């Protein structure tokens, strides 16, 4: 059955049924009014709400023959929840703008909703609302909300010379998985699955804020590009130490087999949604946070003191690949 | 110049420049951190935030040869701000997911942003963030946030037998404008412009909540369809009185010239974003609110006691027109 056959309201009803709203299960949940009205109502106990929007387009951010609907749901949620985590906030809610061709199987939409709800549940958030429209292409716009829990937001602009740079999460895994799939292979599974479903270090975002992080970003466009955003916003130079990036065995093997420099994946691959933050030099890092570089006076990003020139740093969604 | 030529970050910079963020102009504004970071930070003084998402697809919700970019910006904002108003909340912020073909002129995106910012400014809200991606079709997902100002949200589910039904705003104007444009005409301007830019009775939403409205909805799918949503959610029957709907002269004339029943526009046309609410029978209506019917025990919606059968009530975005 296609979404054209169920109709707009039929689709909304089917998808809503899959979204377990924690509000119905306990008074602590953030969703006070879920899908089905003009708007949702979400708790914002801090008195401020953190909000971001991220869009996934079929053929650009995902392919239905490479990822299951559940995978895409996980990824659409993760891309947004990571942005909330990168502010040092706790994600509370997601909204979906679901633009779909009429011939999309209803099961795809249902399994996508399952994936979104499951990823949101990892951080105690839920899908509280959205909109569905018919569209020539499958495009999924997600908005995430979060609560700062009385902390100040960690922006990109606070890094100071002398700060240390640290990261949490994985880098290069999704890019490796993408390259493997692009070449027509399906393994190693760990790398391919990392492209399908990022493993975001959500808890590390709040931890960083508590540890006094001076700046933070989630790596969605590529390590060098995103660290460059911190450098630009803070007016500093960031130098990364290549020796601090360990190369997982599977990644080294795949890079070798494919004839690719694996550090290209690590430094310029996006979409693992690792977190990178800067901290005062006397910080005692904990949790998943590991030191990778240092903040200096100046501008731009270097690796071991040199500009990375192997390829264009990062990813511009409008350029032709 | 096209958006492909400016690139993603160039487009974001150009559009952001157009978005006057009131936070930069005064301490009262709701935007605490605007575009340019992983997420925005918006005041939510009530401790709860109202949130909704609404998507516009080119060719379905707008046409670039029928509306200017500024018009489309107004409409994209209005569709979402009206949903916030229909909860009895004060809109505070908008986020945009802007999915664009590479050949879109940059000026279109800039003027679209101008329209969104101008519509948001009508209610003191601002555009605080978003995402831009390349896409085969022009699709605009907007999320709106709002503050309840310590009032309870007015849902669709509270209408009780004996309540009166009232509306604020205009009905049928956008549908008339759409019909006129569809037939290749461009006048009367008042109707055509109503399709291009709805005039949403924003203040009436908060007033209704203050007057004790028991249920409220914004008319986006058509009067009968949306009143039907109140009836279904509340488990009541709603009877509208046709005599309470005055037929504007321009609408009567255009309907006559086009051979259309103007009440078809009024009862089934969407996208004027009028507000319809139910109130306790002893309410003293004020502002733009005018009585149009009564709530009874039972189910469904009637006009003068009869089911409206002239055409399908309302609008399902997945059905073929």
Detailed description of the structure:
Two copies of one chain form a homodimer. With about 325 residues, chain A is of the alpha+beta class. Chain A folds into two domains: about 5-145, 2-Layer Sandwich (60s Ribosomal Protein L30, Chain: A); about 165-305, PurM-like C-terminal domain (Phosphoribosyl-aminoimidazole Synthetase, Chain A, domain 2, Alpha-Beta Complex). In chain A, about 35% of the residues lie in helices and about 25% in strands. The first copy, chain A, has nine helices and twelve strands. Chain A has helices at about 5-20, 70-85, 105-120, 175-180, 190-195, 200-210, 225-235, 250-260, 260-270, and strands spanning about 30-35, 40-45, 50-55, 90-100, 125-135, 140-145, 165-170, 215-220, 235-240, 275-280, 290-295, 300-305. In chain A, strands 8-10-7-11-9-12 form a six-stranded mixed β-sheet, sandwiched between helices. A four-stranded mixed β-sheet of chain A has the order 3-6-4-5. In chain A, helix 2 (about 70-85) packs parallel to helix 6 (about 200-210) and helix 4 (about 175-180) crosses helix 9. Chains A and B meet through helix 1, strand 2, strand 3, helix 2 and strand 4 of A and helix 1, strand 2, strand 3, strand 4 and strand 5 of B.
């Amino acid at each position: 059955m296609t979404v054209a056959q169920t109709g707009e309201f039929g689709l909304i009803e089917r998808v809503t049924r899959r979204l377990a709203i924690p509000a119905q299960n306990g008074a602590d949940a953030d969703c006070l009014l879920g899908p089905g009205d003009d708007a949702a109502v979400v708790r914002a106990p801090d008195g401020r709400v953190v909000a971001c929007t991220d869009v996934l387009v079929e053929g650009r951010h995902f392919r239905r023959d490479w990822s299951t609907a559940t995978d895409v749901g996980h990824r659409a949620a993760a891309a947004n929840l990571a942005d909330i985590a990168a502010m040092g906030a706790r994600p509370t809610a997601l909204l979906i703008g679901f633009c779909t061709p009429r011939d999309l199987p209803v099961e795809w939409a249902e399994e996508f909703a399952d994936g979104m709800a499951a990823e949101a549940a990892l951080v105690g958030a839920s899908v509280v609302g959205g909109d569905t429209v018919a569209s020539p292409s499958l495009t999924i716009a997600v908005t995430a909300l979060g609560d700062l829990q009385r902390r100040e937001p960690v922006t990109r602009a606070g890094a100071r010379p002398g700060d240390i740079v640290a990261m949490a999460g994985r880098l290069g895994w999704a890019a490796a998985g993408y390259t493997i799939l692009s070449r027509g292979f399906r393994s190693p599974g760990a790398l391919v699955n990392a492209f399908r479903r990022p493993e975001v270090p959500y808890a590390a975002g709040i931890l960083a804020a508590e540890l006094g992080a001076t700046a933070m970003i989630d790596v969605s466009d590529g390590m060098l590009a995103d660290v460059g955003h911190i450098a630009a916003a803070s007016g500093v130079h960031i130098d990364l130490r290549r020796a601090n990036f360990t190369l997982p065995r599977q990644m080294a093997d795949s890079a070798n087999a494919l004839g690719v420099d694996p550090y290209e994946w690590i430094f310029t691959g996006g979409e693992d949604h690792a977190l990178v933050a800067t901290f005062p030099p006397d910080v005692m890092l904990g949790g998943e946070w590991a030191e990778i570089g240092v903040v200096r006076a100046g501008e731009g990003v270097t690796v071991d003191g040199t500009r990375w020139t192997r390829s264009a740093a990062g990813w511009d969604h409008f350029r032709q690949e």
